[in-house]
Amino acid sequence: MRLSQLFTALAIGLMVNAITINDARAQDPKYTRMLEDMVDGKYERVLYRAINFTENDKTKKHPEPYYYMAAAYLRIYLSDDPELQESYPKALKEALKYATKFVKKDKEFEYVVDQGEFFEELRVATIAQADTEMDAEKYTRAKSLYNYLVKLDVKDPSAYMMRGFSNYQARSKRDAYVDFDIACELVGTITGRTKASEETGHYREEPLTDSQKNLLKTSIISAAEQLDADGERARAVELLEYGLGLFEADRSFMVTYSSIAG
Q1: 124, 10 contact by CB (below 8 A)
Q2: What is the pLDDT of residues 4-14, one digit of tens each?
């Protein structure tokens, strides 16, 4: 199964859940109408209301309006309405842009923590689109999407690993190796292979989401196979060894591991 098929299936599962925001946020009268519009599927109205908040001196530093901008753009991107999609051809990119602003504005991590479902749905959509770009050998476009995933979660090893692979395919090997190393550090702290480093900040305490774990497995396999084909078996083995602690029970991973690492 191709990545796009896999993550489209995941997206369908997530889309059955309505977009909501923590009740404590919904009680703020300034933002209640946007919540109601989201529930009613009036996404353009949400954008109109939210952009006013992001441009108002009194509310432009608040995280909530940026969440609503991102959520509305994501629903537009996933919409079955062709006219709506035609009116917003860059809806996914806009959703990612405002989601990263939402994360940045939430300095105390007060609001982001409540939106795990939203971020997972956005991540699934982004991974599927990035996979399409990779298949078309549009590596720069794919890299920009993976870069957004890094910004959304700076401790996501799958985002670094896949950004590294897109850099590698684009012949930016130095950048690729940096991303591979960061990804391995993060994975190592999950499996216990390496110790967490406060100095670098490259450690992860939270469990990976389903989409992150699937992407990590696929990205390690893809990168290792390409590295091995290019005569860089030692680096390919290193990636596989780091992934072994997470995927030793996975048949597809172990097939690649056995053929390269022995």
Answers
A1: yes
A2: 444 444 444 44
Instruction: Note whether 81 and 72 are within 8 A (CB).
Output: no
Q: Is residue 145 part of a domain?
A: no
Residues 92, 208 within the same domain: no
Summarised one tens digit per residue, pLDDT across range 61-84 is: 999 999 999 999 999 999 999 999
Question: What is the rounded CA–CA span in Å between residue 115 and residue 67?
Answer: 9
Q: How confident is the model at residue 26 (pLDDT cuts 50, 70, 90)?
A: very low
Write down the pLDDT at residue 18. 38
CA angle 160, 61, 110 (to 5 degrees): 60
Q: Which two tokens stand for residue 146?
A: 């993976």
Structural domain range at position 55: 1-137
- pTM (2 decimals)? 0.89
Residue whose structure tokens are 């441009």: 55
Token pair recorded at residue 2: 């191709």
- Is 197 contained in some domain? yes
